[in-house]
Amino acid sequence: MTVYDISRTISPTLAVWPGDAPFSFEHALRIRDGSSVNLTTITLSPHSGSHADAYYHFSDGGAHPDQMPLDHYMGPVHVVTSDRRSGGIVPADLAGHDLAGLQRLLIHTWVSDVPDGQWPENFPYPTPELIDWLAAQGAVLLGLDCPSVDRFDSADLPGHHRLREHGMVNLESLCLAGVPDGVYELVALPLKLAGVCGSPVRAILRSGRVL
Questions:
Q1: Are 29 and 199 in contact (CB under 8 A)?
Q2: Which of 1, 52, 88, 120 is least enclosed by beta carbons within 10 angstroms?
Q3: DSSP line for 111-166
Q4: What are phi and psi of 93, to 5 degrees?
Q5: Per residue, what are the HEC states of 11-39?
């Protein structure tokens, strides 16, 4: 069995959405100062690195991470590569890939090759047309290596809202570098956080064991 860690590393040098809180930490206790343990306090956005959006992120009445459907974030997943450099990803961009039995989809783009500390400019994003098409196949999750399921400057966030309308969930800012296209088992659970808009995830793919 092969395990692929598809999570971005959360560190003080991690690039975050412009204007969002960067990750930082400080020591409350240190062994070298005479304490029995090292104890750190961390500060971060729920959207730091690889993360799951909660519906509350874009809707006042939406669910928080502790209320999101956990079963959507684990199970069989198709990984496909798209050559699109910018603009909206449409169903035709996935032509040629075997998506039989599709339940979850991760789209691998050039953004996976961008270092953790660099913000990707003009990244591609899924269109509502693509999300509708995925929902018609029975998909429950859409994951991207890009920072958002909508255009960077979008104000109405059609992709986010369309996912919620279909009862689907999303993952953003994954790193799929070095992962061959194919079918895997995905595990990418959000933390059981109440009242907030999203959660970092430790996302992994396992080959040879598809549920």
A1: no
A2: 1
A3: GGGS-TTSPPSS--EE-HHHHHHHHHTT--EEEESSS-SS-TT-SS-HHHHHHHHT
A4: -65, -15
A5: CCCCCCCCCCCCCEEEEEECHHHCCCCCE
- Other beta carbons within 10 angstroms of residue 10's beta carbon come to 19
Confirm whether 47 is a catalytic residue. Answer: no
Phi, psi of 52 (to 5 degrees): -110, 125
Mean per-residue pLDDT, 55-67: 98
Residue 211 — pLDDT band, cuts 50, 70, 90?
Answer: low
Retrieve residue 84's tokens: 């699109």
3-class SS at 92?
helix
Which residue carries 């809202």 as its tokens?
Answer: 161
User: What pLDDT does 209 receive?
Assistant: 56
The yes-or-no verdict on residue 163 having pLDDT over 90 is yes
All domains of the chain in start order, with CATH: 2-8+46-207 (3.50.30.50)
Q: With a threshold of 0.85, does the pTM exceed it?
A: yes
Token pair, residue 13, equals 């040098």
Binning pLDDT at 50, 70 and 90, where does residue 210 land?
low
**Rg over CA atoms, the chain:** 17
